[in-house]
Amino acid sequence: MAIKIIEQQQQPSVGLSRVAVSDTHGEDSPYFAGWKAYDQDPYDELTNPSGVIQMGLAENQVSFDLLEKYLEEHPEATNNGSSTAASGFRENALFQDYHGLQSFRKAMASFMEQIRGGRAKFSPDRIVITAGATAANELLTFILADPGDALLIPTPYYPGFDRDLRWRTGVNIVPVHCDSSNNFEITRQALESAYKEAESKNMRVRGVLITNPSNPLGATIKRAILEQVLEFATSKNIHLVSDEIYSGSAFSSGEFVSIAEILEARNYKDSERVHIVYSLSKDLGLPGFRVGTIYSYNDKVVTTARRMSSFTLISSQTQQLLASMLSDRKFTEMYIRTNRERLRQRYQMIVDGLKNAGIQCLEGNAGLFCWMNMSPILEKPNREQELALWELILHEVKLNISPGSSCHCSEPGWFRVCFANMSEKTLEVALTRIHHFMERRRVR
Amino acid sequence: MLSRKATCKSHGEDSSYFLGWQEYEKNPHDPVRNPSGIIQLGLAENQLSFDLLESWIAKNQEPIGFMKKGGSIFRELALFQDYRGLPAFKKELSEYMAAIRQDKVRFDPNNIVLTAGSTSANEALMFCLAEAGEAFLVPTPYYPGFDRDLKWRTGVEIVPIQSSSVNNFRIIPSALEEAYQHAQKLHLKVKGLFITNPSNPLGTTLSSHELDHLINFAIDKNIHIVSDEIYSGTVFDSPRFISIMEALKKKNLENTTIWSRVHIVSSLSKDFGLPGFRIGMIYSNSETLIAAATKMSSFGLVSSQSQFLLSRILGDKKFTRKYIMENRKRLKSRRKMLVSGLQKYGIRCLENNAGLFCWIDMRCLLSSYTFEAEMELWRRIIFKYGLNISPGSSFHCPEPGWFRICFSNMSEETLDLAVRRIKALVDSSAPNAC
């Protein structure tokens, strides 16, 4: 009797799985700690002008007016294509087919083509729908790798990958180290080195995952490098996942080269190892609608991903709305062009502002953020000093920016600073604060 | 080149449940264009009350157009990706859940985790409650989708709890114990019970005795209970629905260990007929579970556009009350139509008070009392009589000869035609067989 009682006391009160209690969800990292500080003291131009300005959130708020105008002028977009809201409602509400609405897939394929300036074709039948790119990346990992296997990912990379690719899948990430000596470009040596590291840990490498344009670098990957990465993947007979979530945020169309273009140029030879992830969260600024896709050149992956997407389908209501909006070519061409130009202007504004404050950024040409180099002012070139600087900036300058170490950058002192999730005025306030901060340091 | 999960068959799509759908897709019945096509009786969808929703929408166009008092809410919704969910929606959802349980239980919105459908909720719970290789006990017959949803990516095993037509497939203590022992023999650690209440495919609600057995068993073995209550809004007749939460309260088990080991899953796909919008949820009294499941819901969040629309619909309490009542009436009358039609030809239906389907006894039409004969009968029913009904074996029914027929996903005329085709089937069988 006594033994039984003791056993019961030793059991955790609820008895959850290892996955549930692990911290692989990653929410204890500084990336998320900064968000908490912002939540507690958020900047507001009128009500809290000395609050924390959120520069750690890669959201695109510069082009909402274009979407709002479209919806005003096209009420049928939300009315299932008719002039009254109720018509078409029932078919849409019943539609839970994991193939996704054909009209939606067609519109997505066309939109993806337009973003790439027509330099690559996309077939609607290869598009698999998922509730956001978060789901797409996890789903692909479940399909391409077994627990204990490894994916190679160039650093610095999006902190969310640590959770999205590893948490429930049991797959490991082995970093491919990149540094500022060559603008953080991926090299063959770095890939080989990462591959060997995985082998030495008895991990089977199943693929390379690149983000192009890169988060957090805010730069597109050059064609020659893409070809090299593809060649590496082919030589090791592994997969290549290209997360192109920021493809519509390249400041000029000509600068972004998609892996799709490279495959098309070689007539799709060896393409069954390539898979593209895309979402409307960044280019259209719609993270709340949960619109992600996997585009795979591998039939088996398409079929399996489709079946698995049952766990993460896009609301048919949302598919309908986007099918309507994105099949309007006049609108999408105007949107893509205008959005790019506005992002470019914002980028110029922040980079110039930082330059005036004496801070250099990596030369960027895409994304919703810049990659800022604060290493010259670090007390010592190490992670602790980087985090100390980060905390100083958070609590003294009242800016939440993302430290490079949370992105697994091997070089301390780099920070990701977002510029598209606020008004121009707020960005000016942020730049003024940085200016003053740097001045104070110089005076010291 | 692909993972083991990608190459195995655990996606479950080779089951007869899905094969029937495939045949239907090749030759679907349409009253005008294809009157001799296959009638879909295998899809548990509620199409009976759309007119009520449509008229609500016609009178309330603003939420569809992202408008609320004060202007457009588009930007706010577009940016809203907080995995804790839209507060207004969770509040309305918690009140709706209480309403369909006659307010015998109250739900705290903070204990709700939103997921892209209950498919996503069920899988997430398995990830949170069990390791790969551990097991959940599931009463048979059960929804075929569980073989994929609970097992595929999680690596969790299902150990069936056997049942018998002798007592109308009710859950009995000895069956629970037998299943547990069976799991031990297979060296599987049992982490919990997974029940569906109201039951799919039986369409019955669990009695308070059954709920008592389940709760006592879970306390004794120190395991979880997951109660999939997705059909709770489709209870159209007595006895009334008793949620597992109500059963726990009645036994004064609040603030005991079992209180944090019971988790409810639900969705708006069945009672409201909105499977396309992917609105599911987990409800639990365990803070630790809610914390873990909330983070996990990042992999399957509900579109803020749909959260907003539903917060408005459910927030119209007058409409929701009317909808619940009218929907129940229509389901009851549809069931009656199917059951009395089948009874005329000697086909018996299990007495049921919920769900969108009936569990029918076709043993009299089997050539032999075997599952092979059941498959043979099923093929005849699809190919010769043009009816996609779901064979009991696809639900892991321990006895051959039982089938599930859905009754709320078609017009009255089509259901009537289906009943006439069953008459033809019975007529073609041995005289007085049924």
UniProtKB/TrEMBL annotation, chain A:
Keywords: Pyridoxal phosphate. InterPro entries: Aminotransferase_I/II_large, Ethylene_sulfur-biosynth, NHTrfase_class1_PyrdxlP-BS, PyrdxlP-dep_Trfase, PyrdxlP-dep_Trfase_major, PyrdxlP-dep_Trfase_small. SUPFAM superfamilies: PLP-dependent transferases (SSF53383). Residues 53-434 form the Aminotransferase class I/classII large domain. One of its GO terms (molecular function) is 1-aminocyclopropane-1-carboxylate synthase activity. The keyword Zinc does not apply. Belongs to the class-I pyridoxal-phosphate-dependent aminotransferase family. This is 1-aminocyclopropane-1-carboxylate synthase 7. It comes from Sesamum alatum.
From TrEMBL, chain B:
SUPFAM superfamilies: PLP-dependent transferases (SSF53383). Pfam families: Aminotran_1_2. GO terms for molecular function: 1-aminocyclopropane-1-carboxylate synthase activity; pyridoxal phosphate binding; transaminase activity. Keywords: Pyridoxal phosphate. Belongs to the class-I pyridoxal-phosphate-dependent aminotransferase family. The keyword Cytoplasm does not apply. Residues 39-422 form the Aminotransferase class I/classII large domain. This is 1-aminocyclopropane-1-carboxylate synthase 3. The keyword Cell inner membrane does not apply.
